[in-house]
Amino acid sequence: MNVLIVGSGGREHAIAYCVAKSPKADKIYCTPGNAGIAEYAQCEPIGAMEFDKIVAFAKEKAIDLVIVGMDDPLVGGLVDELEAAGIRTFGPRKNAAILEGSKAFSKDLMKKYHIPTAAFENFDDPDKAIQYLKAEAKFPIVLKADGLALGKGVLICNTLEEAEEGVKTIMLDKKFGASGNTMVIEEFMTGREVSVLSFVDGNIVKTMTSAQDHKRAGDGDTGLNTGGMGTFSPSPFYTEEIDEYCQKHIFQPTVDAMKAEGRPFKGVIFFGLMLTEDGPKVLEYNARFGDPEAQVVLPRMKNDIIDVAEACIDGTLDQIDLEFEDNAAVCVVLASEGYPVSYEKGLPITGLDEFKKHEGYYCFHAGTKLAQDGQIVTNGGRVLGITAKGKNLKEARANAYAATEWVQFDNKYMRHDIGKAIDEA
Fold first, then answer.
1. What region holds the ATP-grasp domain (predicted)?
2. Which CATH number characterizes residue 234's domain?
3. Same domain (yes/no): 268, 235
4. Per residue in 278-310, pLDDT tens?
5. Which residues of the chain have pLDDT under 50?
6. Which pLDDT score is estimated for 225?
7. Which of 97, 132, 167 is the endpoint of a domain?
8. Which of these, 57, 370, 379, 411, is most buried using a 10 Å CB contact count?
9. Three-state DSSP class for residue 352
10. Domain encompassing residue 140
11. pTM exceeding the 0.85 threshold for the entire prediction
C-alpha cells in the first residue's frame, strides 16, 4: 500500500514508525514531515492546511490510505475532501472533529447525554461572562477558549481579578484568535489526570493503554502551559475498576452520543480524564492521537496500525483484538530554551545515531529539519521526544533520562520530573 501521513510533529513520527513496521506498507509519504520522519517516508513540502495540494498529491501518488495526525486539518475538514476524491482516510470528518474543535459543543454534548464532566457555562459575550464570575463563580476557576489553541487556550484563575483579566485575554485581546469568540467557564477539578487514547469505528470504541502528560513548562508543574513536556504509560492510577466505570459511563456513551447527533466518529478519540473524589470526569476530548502521548502508547502497541486504521474506516473494529506489550514507556521532551514563548531555531543537533544502537529507545522528532548541508537542526519549540521502554515505569523513566544525554544542541531544555508521580504511586 501507498500510505500518506499528514503532519510534522513527534506524533506523526510515532505514526510513521508504526506504519513502517507494517508488512502492508510499500511506500510512505508525509506532508510536510520533518527530519526524523524522513527516515521512513518521502517528505513533501505541502502544509497540513493546503487541502487542495494534499488531495492532488494523494491522487498523483495513488495513495491507498491517508492518516491525518494533526487537529487543525481534521477540524478544517481534510478528511471530507479526501473522501470526496475517493481516497480512504483515517480520521474523523469535519462534523465529528468538532468534538475537539469546539469545547462549547463537547461540553453541551456531555450535559445532554449525562457524561460526567466539570460543571460549566458557555459565553459568547465577555460582559455576561464577567457578570457570571462576579455573581456565581467559586475560585479557583477554569477559563477555556472554545476552539483550537495548540493546547494552550486554558487559564486557571485563582481570584476574580485574574478571571476578569482572563476574559479580557481570551475574548477581547483575542490571544488565541477566533478560538476565543466563545469561552467556557468551568469548575476547577482536582485529582490525577489520565489520558486514554481510543480507536473508534463509528459504533464501538476500543481503548489503548493509558498515559499521563505533563503540560507545564517547568519542573513541579510550574510555568506556562505547553503542548506537552513529556509523558508516561501506563498510568498506575488508572485501575481496572476505573477503566470499567469509564467504558460504561464515558467512552461508549460518547461514541453513542456522536452517532445519535448524526456525527458518527471514526478515528481516534483522546479522552482527557480527571480522577476526582467523585469519580472520573472528562476534562477534554481530542479528535486524534495525543502528542506526546502517541510517543509512549504506539511503541507499545502490538497490532499492525494499518489493520486497525482500516477497521475503523470499515466499521469492523469489533474484529480487532487490541494488544499492548506488558511493559512501560516514558517520553521526555527536549525543547529549546524559551519555549513556549520565543526560542532560537536552526541549531545543529548531534548524537541522534546513538538510538540505532539500542533497542527499546526512540528519538521522535517534533521540531527538526534538514539544513542545506545535510545537518539536522532545530526547527521548533519542542524539538525531540526521547522515549524509552522498561519492564516497569521506574526503569523506563531511568532509561529515558539516560538517553536524553546522548543528544546535544545549544539551548537544550527539559523537565527533570517527568513521571515523578510514579515514585509516589
1. 107-317
2. 3.30.470.20
3. yes
4. 999 999 999 999 999 999 999 999 999 999 999
5. none
6. 83
7. 97
8. 379
9. helix
10. 119-187
11. yes
